Amino acid sequence: VGPYVLVTPNETRRKQLQQIAKKELDDLEQWKKEHRPGPITLVPQRLGGNESEAQVRQNQQMILMQSKYQKKQKREEYVKAKKAAEEAEILKKRAIQREKAERLEVKKRQEEMQRREMLLEDQKYKTNELLNRLDMGLPKSDSCQIANPGLESTAWKRSHAYKQALREDENRRLEEMKQEQQRKAELLEFKQKQEEETRTRALKNEQRSCLESLLIFYCTLRVNNAFLDRLQNKTQLNNIYHPGYTG
Fold first, then answer.
1. How far apart are CA 92 and CA 188, in angstroms?
2. How far is CA 159 from CA 86, 122, 163, 196, in A?
């Protein structure tokens, strides 16, 4: 412990401070006594309402029932809106999947048509190549030194008939492909029309259900209002013949 200096307290200064503090406390008490509020004087008046306790209790019960009904109605509307939103989301996802499937089907048909066209082109090329070979193997028509002219005419007829048969076969295949594409287009149009009718019918059913719900709510509201009017009239009659106390 370091060195320290002990200072002797000044008793005179302490007494002066104590006297000043005491004087201030006495002044505060004196001020409180002088500014103490006086007695309160109120004009006598009659308290209470114009309705009896039973009527007040009945009104409270009615308000409570109405609040319960409103909460129930809000909850039902929330559930209905949530269900409608979920159904709309499901319909939207189905529509997206349907569009993807249709695009995939169109892409497959286009690839199939391209493949058939390529196959027909290749077949046509090979057929022409074969016919050219046959034509090159036949003797020329302007050569007069022909051993047997019947053979030339017979080969030419067979080649011409073969070419004609190939052309007819190719035309028949093209016609079949056109008819098939037309049938597919008609089927796709019919499916789209059915889906549009289904969506329209679902929308009409939803609107009808909403209208029915609104009608039920309106009827219920009218019944409740009529019940409350009858109850209020009955209460007024009871107050007329059996007035309640006020206090």
1. 20
2. 69, 20, 6, 55
Q: Going residue by residue through the chain, which has 247 residues, state the pLDDT in tens, using 9 for 90 and above.
A: 577 777 787 889 889 999 999 999 999 999 999 988 888 888 877 666 677 778 888 888 888 888 888 898 899 999 999 999 999 999 999 999 989 998 898 888 888 888 888 888 888 888 777 777 766 654 444 444 444 445 446 666 766 677 777 778 878 888 888 888 888 888 888 888 888 888 888 888 888 887 888 888 888 888 888 888 888 777 776 666 555 544 3
The letter for the amino acid at 172 is R
pTM beyond cutoff 0.85: no
Cα–Cα distance list, 164 to 132, 137, 153, 160, 185 (Å)? 15, 19, 16, 6, 31
